[in-house]
Amino acid sequence: MLIPVINRSTHLLPAYQTAHAAGMDVRAYLPEPVTLRPLQRALIPTGLFMEIPEGYEVQVRPRSGLAYKHGIGIVNSPGTIDADYRGELKVLLVNLSDEEFVVQDGERIAQLVVARHETAVWQEAATLSETTRGAGGYGSTGVN
After folding, report:
1. Over 70: is that where the pLDDT of 143 sits?
2. Is 87 annotated as a binding residue?
3. Residue 121 exposed, middle or buried by CB count within 10 Å (0-12, 13-18, 19+)
4. What is the pTM of this model?
5. Comparing C-alpha atoms, which of 13, 9, 125, 94 is closest to residue 58?
6. 76 labelled ligand-binding
7. Residue ranges making up the domain that contains 83
8. Is residue 22 in some structural domain?
9. Is 116 assigned to a binding site?
10. Does residue 89 sit within a domain?
11. Any binding-site annotation on 95?
12. Where along the chain is substrate bound (predicted)?
């Protein structure tokens, strides 16, 4: 699948790091480093603008290494970039650790996953079909 992209950064385009990876690493594009204090969040630019095909989205997900080693996540994870969005891709990072973290220009800050989606149409109904689970919610399928 080809996705048109404008790269206004000085970095390479997002890329898969291994042959079977689902996500492509995307890099920060910063004029100067950004320091995230504990529990602080910041919108980090990438310099990328894209034209996602209709019927697809690009999901923005945390990088497991940043999460594990530094407690860095994404506030609205996974974030969604819709096919009709033409603005710059920015990543909403959050520091969930108890130490400051400095985001450097060119650092891999998130991964992008291209995913197909359906467009749903709601159909109002008076009843729903029965299932074994029924209305069991949070934790209802666990073993006691």
Report:
1. no
2. no
3. exposed
4. 0.88
5. 13
6. yes
7. 5-116
8. yes
9. no
10. yes
11. no
12. 63-65, 76, 80-82
